[in-house]
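Hi support team,

I submitted a single chain yesterday and got back a structure, but I'm not sure I'm reading the token output correctly. Could someone confirm the output below corresponds to the sequence I sent? I've pasted both exactly as they appear in my results page.

Thanks,
R.
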Amino acid sequence: MTVQPSTANPTGQTGPLPWEDARAVAYAAGVDAAAPPVEVPLADADGATLAYPLLTRTDLPAFPTSSVDGFAVRGPGPWRVIGRVLAGTLARPLAEDGVCVEIATGAAVPPDTTAIVRTEDSTREQDGRVSGTPRSTPEWREPGEEARLGEELLPAGTAVNPAVIGLAASCGYDTLGVRAAPTTAVLVFGDELLTSGLPGDGRVRDSLGPSVPAWLRRLGAAAGPVLGPVEDTLEAHVEALNRALAGGAELICTTGGTMSGPVDHLHPALAQLGAAYLVNTVEVRPGFPMLLASVPRPGGGTTLVAGLPGNPQSAVVALVSLVAPAVAGLSGRPMPALPTIRLSAPVGARGGFTHLALVDSDGVAVSHAASSMLRGMARAVGFAVIPPNSDAVAGDEVALVPLPLLAGERP
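Hi R., thanks for writing in. Yes, this is the structure output for that exact sequence:
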């Protein structure tokens, strides 16, 4: 799907997009704007995404490998010990029946071995020979037992983590072709915002400047600079956007200014920069006035600008609705799939809008969940998706948009 933005109609749409459609547009926009793959050393690949399928470059294991410490024997015993094979050394054939070599776990099994007798199942005779009874199943791994040469181990779009790095190394890779985590910048708009101290005298603490980069990292992006609070003037908005564009950010998240109030300058600033709107308002509550636009970057290419509403919970709704799919597309990862959750209490609809309702792990809508509040979010696992014009009752199984939390952060 290639996004066809519109500059003739500054919104690119005739009205708010349905929530599911907005997610799809955001993902396609990320795919279209994704940077080309890069080749990086294994040690630098963590957090990136496989740009190509991971194929085995050899059988795994590449040669018969002992699973135990013991003796590799040929023929019936007792056996005369003629040497030792350790991991990393060449295993020479056993030339005749009645001989064996001491063998270590992970060592190559000598050709013509008929069995391996575990150390604990063996006895040294007075003449130095070894006797014992092999177990009924072979004590070594055959070549290709884990994978065959050329077999696909992981598809393109797989997130690279330590397990993937280890697997690639075991196959003989020194580098990986990956899509790097997309670079981001965060612009915080609002003269009313404080960056330290207690709120008061008509001013409030900025909760999004410190938290949005952390959300972006959990979504798989590389969190960049936070600029702001940006003065509530058109000139300051344009300057801040230009600074982020000049820094090469692939995705800019702005907070506040997505409506058309007297100090909402995001839309005029985007117009000055030649932006093409991809999404401009979404049929969702909370978070309705979110947007996604494509802005030309100095020197070529485009940057995606995600306009997050200023209310904290609405901003997170925009993050999981538009930014998460866009980051997945930019990263070369699949569209984020939505798990389900069974509600244990009713959740009301929000008219003709999709309702994203904060719920806990028991499927209960949390309290203190107004769009301006964050207290409920600290106890939630994500947003239950309540379709338009449809109340949900206890026992309903609905889609869940998980909050991008690490495993140890789950409430």
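A quick pointer for reading it: The first strand starts at residue 17 and ends at 18. Let us know if anything else looks off.

Best,
Support desk
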